[in-house]
Amino acid sequence: MACFTAVPFEFSRVRPLMPTKSFLPGLILVFCAVPSLCSVAAERSAPAQSNSASTTLIETASRQYENGQLDQAAATLERALHIQPNNPATLHYLGVLRLQQGQYQQAETLAARSNIRVGRNVELRNRNFQLIQAAQQAQSSGTPPNAKEDLVAVQKGLEEEAQRRREAEMAVAEQSTPDTGNDAGNLARAEAYRGLDAPSAGRAGPEGKLQMTNVEPERAYAEVEIPRGHMPRPGKCRIWFPDRPAGHQPAPGKCKKLRHRVPPGAYLVRG
């Protein structure tokens, strides 16, 4: 992507004795600033492209699974994990596919990895426990599980996951307010919401830099370690994924729009 900046010049007066000294520093500054602005724009667009690519892969895996292409769907989910290695939902659904493929040990491992990063999503945590139990039973008995009911559940789950991600991307795209970096330092006291339909009854802090200190229904207050320049401004919110680098987080936006579009495994951080 190329960036071009128009530089106005005035030639109404000609000064033969000093033709270039006065505007050369400004001209040099312009040519130095243009590449810098281009690189900043590219850096901001990279996370959005990465998130969109992962969502597209989830949608592709859903279609492949619907058509009975289990191997292709599993390969597609692996590609999605290369983009977002610690996404708990992707880990879970890939584990279900491994169970149906007869790879019971890998299914159990993927479910355990998902549970490490699942946070307060009780529904996904319970599904992971069921997946681990099914994998252990199939491995000990040598009998593959009945996958007819799982086919419908996984198909529905993949579609819902893709829909959640698309809604989150749309919410981010609607926000035009840039992140100005007005934060309270590296450790900020923030209000964090988890994208859940049901509240959690226990204390289960996610892996990483987010540690839950107090749990209330559908709401929690957390010590969020956010690098300088990434905290939303007062009155703004941003969706924060604990398994992503700070530079790959969605941009801040309006709390009213974002609070209903938080995907599983993510927080809504209020400035």
Automatic annotation (TrEMBL):
Domain of life: Bacteria
Residue ranges of TPR repeats: 54-87
Region (Disordered): 161-184
Keywords: TPR repeat
Name the record gives this protein: Tetratricopeptide repeat-containing protein
Annotated organism of origin: Pseudomonas jessenii
